[in-house]
Amino acid sequence: MFYIFQNKKTAPRWYIIAGLVFFVHYNISHLKSGFAEISESVEKLGWREIQFVDKKSNRFSRCGQGCIQVDSDSAVSMIQRSLKIDITEKKFLSWEWKLAAPPAPSDLARKGKDDRPLAVYVTFPFDYQNASMSERAMRPLLEFSYGSEAPGRVLSYIWASAESKGKVIESPFGGAQHKMIVKRNNRSRLGAWLEEKVNVVADYKDVFGGEPKSVSHILISSDTDDTLSFNTGFVKNMQFTPH
Question: Which fold has domain 2-241?
Answer without folding.
Answer: Jelly Rolls (2.60.120)
